[in-house]
Amino acid sequence: MEVEKTYGGHVVVLPYPSQGHINPLLQFAKRLASKGLKATIATTHYTLSSISSPLITVEPISDGFDDGGFAQAQSEELFLDSFKSNGSRTLTQLINNHKTTKDPITCVVYDSFLPWALDVAKENEILGGPFFTNSAAVTAIFSRIHDGILRLPVRLEDCPVVIPGVPPLNLEDLPSFLNAPESYPAYLKMKLNQFSNLDKADWIFSNTFRSLEYEAVKGISERWSAKFIGPMVPSAYLDGRIGGDKGYGASLWKPLDDACTKWLETKPPNSVVYVSFGSMVSLTQQEMEEIAWGLQDSGFYFLWVVKDSERHKLPKGFLDLSTQNQENGMVVSWCNQLEMLAHDSVGCFVTHCGWNSTLEGLSLGVPMVGVPKWADQLTDAKYIMDVWCVGVRAKVDSGFGMVKREELVLCLNEVMNEGQRGLEFKKNARKWKELAREAISEGGSSDKAIDEFVMSIKDTSKRQDTCVLVDSCTYT
Fold first, then answer.
1. 76, 94, 294, 343: which could form a disulfide with 405 (CB 3.0–4.6 Å)?
2. Is 111 a catalytic residue?
3. In terms of domain of life, where is this protein from (predicted)?
4. Which of the four pLDDT bands, split at 50, 70 and 90, describes residue 5?
């Protein structure tokens, strides 16, 4: 007879429904499950089928656009308002549905973009806490805007901006819309709303680790009692303590294309430039052309991930070169980024500097060339070059407003070649890889922070069980 599994508590994890937010929160849910908690991902109907892991359960809530998600809403403001009203209602239903089960929900860990989830938790008398998916430095910047300490717009004459725990930041290092807040009003409002009810949170989680952002972590810790639990990268690439954990979630990844791996295996160690601008960034046709010919002119082998929707922007001559003769380079519509970064042949990562990609590059010890486009990517690029010293940031040509091919070639030569700086980047990349592994391994700073949370949830769950037993007694 199969023995029914018992858990020490039940945590619902609620991500913002985009890949860059689902991945780290799903990874956190798996970490919690591996430590004896029941973990449930609550996600929108539209993203439900894309999330799968044997360690967790997945249950739907509604954003009001069940058939098409954000694309159906066509407006960030409309989507967020609808998600707040429909999400609050359906998250409450989910909590109520579990109240009479053997695993009532103990805590809601929610994406910091969705602060209404904390209100729902408190209304239902359970614990709640936000999960910040940006760096500690970026969190510190936006918290000061929210508190009125840093005023918008930030002008050139206001720079450098000095924030405790963060290096002095020039205009090109700050999240892009700080000097033009009217450009993305709904997004800015969402970023600032992360802090609207933070004083009511029982926990605050941040996807970074202490040694990576020591000063920023120290600055945040003086304001809030936060848990730094990163990097939330699949266990196989770090500590290996979660069996078979090679991807974030089974259905978020297409099956690994053998063609990419087989091609990489024909190349010498550290000889390939891996290029990806993430799932959200869309380059102009001119930008695509400059990147394409820069890769071609560099003379390095390259593997470039270009979404099908962007492929038409590639120069025809370049596409012919990389499809007919794949000796020097490949253009693919998808590949498993973690598998690629972990491969011995890859010597450099050309990245948009999104936080997940940045953490993956650091965790797998790959030097980087940063080509940031907007938002927090600019600040991440500053850290890649000047704080962690694992690569360079490509300079934007002021006359053209983009990174030109000659600049990309210069950057690739600096990172890939065996000169003094190239060797320094490789040495530092190896150092951060070891520190990332150390943080999440047993007894590391992030592992201890997760354990503290898990033990607290188990204690809360025990107290709840005791209360239920007392309440169910009949006295005569």
1. 294
2. yes
3. Eukaryota
4. low
